[in-house]
């Protein structure tokens, strides 16, 4: 097998371990050459991500542990599509909420010349 050939591999255990931070992203897809971005995020009980709009990217969200609301009630196993341009807010339930987000990778920032 050619060593430059892409291969499937396990990246992490999707269950939040004791060494994970109390809140926020505890894993991010960081492999070079990727076409996707992905994050595993944990919100403690009652924690809230305020309403916002992602104007450019569709986001797929999978609840991996806990429950809460993302416009409507969600629980472990819920698969939520957040189309670009949609308003969304996320609130963790009584046991907290851990979820995976996946979306197309954003292009890197580019320096452009201003028109005269």
UniProtKB/TrEMBL annotation:
Residues 1-22 are annotated as: Disordered. SUPFAM superfamilies: RmlC-like cupins. It comes from the Bacteria. This is Cupin domain-containing protein. It comes from Kribbella hippodromi.
